[in-house]
Amino acid sequence: MIFSSYRNELLDLLRIRLPIIQAPMAGVSTPEMAAAVTDAGGLGSLGLGATDAAAGRALIRAARQRATGSLNVNVFCHAPARPDAAIEAAWIERLRPEFERCGVQPPRQLRAIYQSFLEDEAMLGMLLEEKPTVVSFHFGMPPRETLRALLDAGIVLLGSATTLENALALEQAGIQAVIAQGFEAGGHRGLFDVNDRDDQMGTLPLTRLLAMRLTVPVIAAGGIMDGHQIRAALALGASAAQLGTAFIACTESQADAGYRAALRSDAAYHTVMTRVISGRPARVLSNRFTQLAASATAQQVPCYPIAYDAAKALHGAAKAAGEHGYGPQWAGQGAPLIREGSAADLMNALAAELFD
C-alpha cells in the first residue's frame, strides 16, 4: 500500500483527504477544533449529545464560519432515562460526605440532564435544515424513518459498534460506515444495551473482524494516538481511524486545567472503565470520583444520564473548592502518548507519521 497516495471509498464519501477522524467528544470538542481538523484534511467533529437543538445549530454554524469542508455531528441514541426515586436517593446519600467536604449540600433530587436523540424531534429537524456532511450515532441508532430522512437530505451516516452483532445491525439499517470502538477507547462505550454482556473486544481484533465481515467501510477507534497506529489500523482493513484522547490536550479543546494536568500525571497510565460518573460504562482517568465509587454495583448507580446530574454537581462544587479530582476526565488507554499543541500541529504530525 502506498500511503502517500492513499484513497478509498470512505474518504471519497466523506470528502476528506486524510483517513483521520477527530472523535466528536461532547464537552471537549469545539468548533475551532473541528474546523482545524477539517482544514488539515481530516473529518472534524462536534458532539451534540449533551446539548439541545438551538445550541447544536450554533455550534454547527460556528464551525462552518471557520472551515468550509466536511463536518461530522454526533448524537446519542440511548434509551430514555427511567427514573427510580429509591436508587437516586441512595446515590445522593452515598455522595453526601463528598459534597460536605466541599462545603455544600448535595442536590435534593436528580434529573435526566440530556435528552436522547430518539425522542428529540427538534434536534432531528435542526439537522435536516443545517445538513452537516455527516451525522454519527452512539449508543445505538434511531428508527429507520429517521435514518431515511437524514439519508434523503444527503447526509452521510456513521454508527458506533462494539460487537459484530451491532455492526451488522447498523449495516442492515443503511448506515454507510461503522466505527469499530475497541475497549481501549476513552469516554462512553457505544453499547446498544447497557445491560448486555460486554465482550470487551480490543480495537485491533474488532477492526479486523468487522473489516472481514461487513460490506461497508470500517473506522477503527480506541487507543489510537499517532500515525503509526493509524497505519496499522489501515493494514487491518480499516478505511480510517477515529482519534479522541489524542485531541484532548489541544489548545482548541474545552478540557479545563485540572483535566489537562491529570493527563500529564501518572493517572494517564491508570484509566478505569466505570459507570459511576454518568450511569453508563465509560473509560476515565482514575481519580477521586472513581475511587470513592469503586465499590458501587451497577444496580446501585442511577441510570444514564441521571447519575451524571450528581457527578456534574459534585465536580462543580469541588472545582469551586479548588479540587479537580471529581471531574469526568474521559481518556483512552493511549493517554500516556498524548501531545500538546494545536489541532493543526497534531494533524500535521499524524500525517507525517502515517506517510513516513
The CATH architecture of the largest domain can be named as Alpha-Beta Barrel
* Count of separate DSSP helical elements: 13
- The global form is globular
Which sequence of SSEs, written as H and E, runs from N to C?
A: HEHEHEHHEHEHEEHEHEHEEHHH
Task: Please give the domain count.
Answer: 2
Describe the main β-sheet briefly: 8 strands, parallel
Helix content: 25-40%
- SS class: alpha/beta
Instruction: Kindly estimate the percentage of residues that lie in beta strands according to DSSP.
Output: 5-15%
CATH fold-type name of the largest domain: TIM Barrel
Q: Say how many strands there are.
A: 11
- CATH class designation of the largest domain: Alpha Beta
CATH superfamily of the largest domain: Aldolase class I
Strand order of the largest sheet: 1-9-8-6-5-4-3-2
Q: Please give the radius of gyration in angstroms.
A: 19 Å
Cα end-to-end separation = 12 Å
User: If you average the pLDDT, what whole number results?
Assistant: 96
Q: Uncertain regions: pLDDT < 50 for 5+ in a row? A: none
Structural notes for this entry:
The chain has two domains: 1-80 and 116-251 and 340-356, Alpha-Beta Barrel (TIM Barrel), CATH 3.20.20.70; 82-113 and 255-335, no CATH class. Helix content is 38%, strand content 13%. The chain is globular and about 55 Å long. The protein has 13 helices and eleven strands. The strands form two sheets. An eight-stranded parallel sheet has the order 1-9-8-6-5-4-3-2. It is an alpha/beta fold.
